[in-house]
Fold this sequence. Notes:
It contains 15 helices and three strands. The protein has 312 residues and is mainly α. The protein has two domains: 7-68, Multidrug-efflux Transporter Regulator, Chain: A, Domain 2 (Orthogonal Bundle), CATH 1.10.1660.10; 96-307, no CATH class.
Amino acid sequence: xxxxxxxxxGELARRTGLTVKTIRFxxxxxxxTPTDRSPAxxxxxxxxxxxRLDLVRTLxxxxxxxPTIRKIGDRELSLPEVAAxxxxxxxxxxxxxxxxxxxxxxxxERGLTPEExxxxxxxxxxxxxxxxxxxxxxLDTVFDGLGADPAFAGVMRSMTPExxxxxxxxQARAWVEWAELVLDPDFRAGVRRMAEDLAAERALGDTTVPxxxxxxxxxxxxxPALAAGIDPASPPADPIVAALADxxxxxCGRPDDPELRRRLLRxxxxxxxxxxxxxxxxxxxxNSWPAPESLTRVLDWAGEALRVRTQL
Length: 312
């Protein structure tokens, strides 16, 4: 086509696939302007109008508003800069939508009340600073005043969720449930007791000696008994209980006696909280960590084995 060729609105509509009404609307707003008018006063457009309308259609599909599109067309704004700004805005919207979808899914699955739903919604809408404050408040409640033992710094890191800026659906749902869980005063009190037990153990024992999580030691000792089907109340469980007590006595730096075994039983009962398991399951999802191993069966067995042998 010759560059001097002019098109009526109808011809322009056929070339671009837009309606006459839409082109007239864009023309009235200065997004695409007529080059001339026919003797009868009808608008006529040059070939550049075709390219401009194609750009308008693309940018509208991407969600840009008309004033911005007009400025881009007039080169008052850089398209790459506008695209970057809109991409960032869309990322925020996607995160919000994922969190909203997470709330609605949890409401549907758990049959929440309007009050519980409102709490879930508020937790999903927390800003980054508000999330950080919630996490800090929970960890302060659990660890505040337990001393400057460097072991606690590692424990706190291992308990800290880091929700990505653009979380996946599963991460968004896990965050909402995690936040709900740590607001539960009873759960906070239980985790605080676990932290105090750990602090007491380290105060009694030799804190210069590296040590594994005691629950891992319990697993290593008890898992074979579970696999073998040994009843925790039966005589074959006696050497396993003795090994557990010996390991705990070494950890605490004190002899194996009835008081130590009562302390060990309380420790196992404190750790064996289903909410603790759920906390670390949710944390793994939020932080994209491997799913943690559940120690419930191991702790149940160890607790029962000690209970039948301990007079409380």
